[in-house]
Amino acid sequence: MSLPPQFSGHRISGKADAKHTLELYLDYVCPFSAKIWKQVYENVLPFLEKEYSGQVQVIFRNQIQPWHPSSTLVVEAALAVEQIDPAQFAPYSNALFVNQKSYFDEAVVDKTRTEQYKSLSALAANTTHSSLREDKVLSLLQINPVSTASEATNHGNKITNDLKYHIKLGRQTGIHVSPTVLWDGIVENSISSGWTLDQWKEFFASKL
Where in the numbering of this chain does the Thioredoxin-like fold domain appear (predicted)? Predict the structure, then answer.
């Protein structure tokens, strides 16, 4: 349930000293993750703030599903946005879910890694705060090519270390698929991506 300060943007609602924690392990290119995100972002978060203010913190956890190769690149873009302005992590995450089909396998199969980084950087500049200039986001993502394999270092980009944290966390916690939801550190299998707001209300009424 801990959240390093450099990833403060992942706390999308509430404060660290809240009595309870709701964690959402989501993949930006997973349709079911998009479904639960939409309900939580648009309806559940305002409900919690109104009815249970200060009682619950909600943390977004990046869960990369490697069978969708673009998932890694999309998460890198979200982490780049967070490095620049943590307050824009949630709005950009929302934009990624809204536009997730642009990063589905069939949509990107013929696109290079650099082309996808450029697309993700443009999305950041177009859908969030003006401080997120496209070139600034891209500078954290891009990797300079080399002429020969012997010159390659395999060091990744300026987001690689941040990415490793989130991958290690999911593995250590034993999260296998998205969406997976935890309540106070324990997987809550009763929660479904198809839940209505009323079902969420019933859940919180039983827990708070």
Answer: 11-142
DSSP letter at 148? Answer: S
What is the model's pLDDT at position 127? 80
**Alpha carbon 61 to chain centroid, angstroms:** 6
What's the rounded Cα separation, in Å, for the pair 79 and 166? 10
d(CA 142, CA 113): 9
How many structural domains does the chain have? 1
Quote the domain boundaries for residue 146.
5-207
Question: pLDDT class for 74, splitting at 50, 70, 90?
Answer: very high
Mean pLDDT of the chain: 95
Task: Indicate the angle between helix axes 113-127 and 89-98, nearest 10 degrees.
Answer: 120
d(CA 181, CA 194): 13
For residue 79, the SS3 value is: helix
CB 129 within 8 A of CB 87: yes
| Residue 131, both tokens | 């401080």
| 25/59 Cα distance (integer angstroms) | 9
